[in-house]
Amino acid sequence: MAAAKKVADFHTHDIEGDAIVKSELLSIMANRHRLHILFLLSKTEYSLTELTRELNETTVALSRHLMILRENNIITGRRHGKMVRYSLTSDRVARMIATIADIYSGKTISSPGESEVPSVPEEQCAVDKDMEAVAMLLRNLYPPTSGN
What we know:
By secondary structure, this protein is mostly helical. It contains six helices and three strands.
């Protein structure tokens, strides 16, 4: 994807362009692995090793998902010694993730900076089931574009 095209940058100042950018973002999120990564990163930074352990996925598979998220300016990597720490690039994406979690868990999960809203421990949610349900909904609403 071209460097100038960043789907996490929501506003394009024209209605049609804005809708295209938002649908591309949702299309990228319509993958349960990427969605799960985003849910984790909405809470704190993670390294590839930590994500591999948390998600029980291979490094190769996670690297591909991280690359797609980075290319689209949804996440960023910060070098910490030999390790890269990943985080969300936008509070807007964090709010989207919190909203999705809220809708599908029936409970409120706070966005960064909203400390007065209680967080739901992950063990209380059927995380994989929720991720698949949300990803399926997003895939149906926003079919993946080529390369995602």
